[in-house]
Fold this sequence. Notes:
The protein is mainly α. It contains 13 helices and seven strands. The relative contact order is 0.09.
Amino acid sequence: MAGLSPSQLEELLQGPALNPPLGVIPNFDNSYTLLPVANAVKIVTTILATLAIFIRIYTKFRIIREIHLEDYIAVAAWGGYIVFIVTTGFDPKVFGRHQWNIRLVDFQIFLYGTYISSISFGLAILSIKISILLQYIRIFTAGTRDLMFWSCHALMWMTVIFYVILLFMTIFLCTPVPKFWNVLETGHCLNMNYVFLATGTANTISDFLIILLPQPIIWRLQMSFKEHVGVSAIFSTGLLACIASMVRLIISSKLLKNNDVTWLTSIMCIPSYVELGAGIITSCLPTLPRFFKTMAQISWISKMYKCFSSCFRSSKSSNSSSKKISERSGRSSWVRNRRRLSMVRVERGVAGSLDGLEGWGDEGEGEDPDAVFPTTRLGDVTTSRGVRNEGDNLKLKNFDEERGVPQVSVIRQGSEATEGSN
């Protein structure tokens, strides 16, 4: 670089940070970016993690009034998480874009952000794991030196040693250190992709071990099966962090064969947000029951809760009543339609032969086997004056044009009065 003239150096810095694939033209202004997706994940995880850490602080300071070392470490983890989300994606010109769509001068900004975010990520994830393991020791061992006690200590100190080594490797990856982000600096660097791969592997293994550690103790407690499942679920919420860590590990492995660093590193940031956010929430979960129990005892919060509960029950009752009315209306409609279908059967019989219809009606009670739905034979025709009697004559009246159905008259013996039956 030292032999380049100022104009050549400027041309180099304004060119693409990576040679594009064949047939691809670098687009420095309007290329596709992952920034909107990353920002959405970042906002959700930040809100939830911040809410969880503030509930933990409030519960420990104002309700329990007892502070432990793991509480301070959890706050430090949240601080590392905030630094990580700020230093990733702060420059929309570089984050989430393919490297050939980024100028070399802007790529240096990306590298500097990667340097800071890698250190902050390591500190944050280490603090989260220590905070959770210290809580395990305080909750499950209660001053005893059993297998759980030694297992937690062994995992905690192994995690500390491993991450301290990784942090030193990250900080002093290049000689001199500015060589990490300054492409014009002379010197040499180790392969950062191997550090990403080692970090992802350690995260995945330790996350699963942290989830599995308390399970034997939880299932030995004298509780119902439902309570066992509930307590186990609380301590298993870190499973989301495990899944995110596995996704991060898969992406980091692709960096060994792909030179598109800005694109893959930006993708890797998305599960990293989830992993850190889920880890912070998991470390704060043991304080949540005490917090909500205390909040329920505060008068105005209790009244607000009762108000919402009453509105919910009222809405549910209204929906249930509407459903019952709808069902009742449906049954009434079904009965009317059935009567109408029965009268259609009557019409067909009368149209063939009035005598045949009368003979069919004299067969007595039963069901018409040819009906679409089970229908009652004409022998059971009921009018407002009663059931048809033996010897009554039947007469087909004109169609009721308004209602669109035929009318059958029942003529009583010795009487000319007629009666319509629908």
